[in-house]
Amino acid sequence: MKTQIDPVLRGTLLAAVLALSACASMQASTTLESKSGSTVIGNATFSEDGDQVTLQLDVTGASPGAHGAHIHELGDCSAADASSAGGHWNPTTKVHGTPNPEHHLGDLGNIQIGQDGKGTLKLSKEEWTLGDGASTDVVGKALVIHAGEDDLQTDPAGASGARQACGVISKQ
Ligand SMILES: [Cu+2]
Ligand SMILES: [Zn+2]
Known about the structure:
nine-stranded antiparallel sheet, binds copper (II) ion, binds zinc ion, single chain, Immunoglobulin-like
């Protein structure tokens, strides 16, 4: 009698091992709450992806068009206008703007919102880290969505207007 593992069972075991290894990689997330009287809400997930950290951001309830999105330096969304989140997260002391190769670590550019008020942004950065407590760690910072478009050049904040949603990034 053969002692080989049944191919179906083997497939199930392989799937279980893959699921476990996926769980082992670090994740962080945040739920964005409306600020400045807006209806904008959303959620974001950061996951380790090889040498980089990948952000998946989903927003609803926003006006159609481009909205500036940034990681701000203070994990505090308590103010009604989210001013408590401070300025752009900039641990490497660079100048604002995504075309600039040496921009703020917190510069995410713009999220494009459709006629249905929804938008998605996916972005990876090698410079980000997740949960290691280093100055490049996204955990403990605040993700902010703005009323207007980030012009990607005006220092220090891209002239993108009021802060319409804010969420503190925490480890999962
Ligand atoms: Cu901002
Ligand atoms: Zn910036």
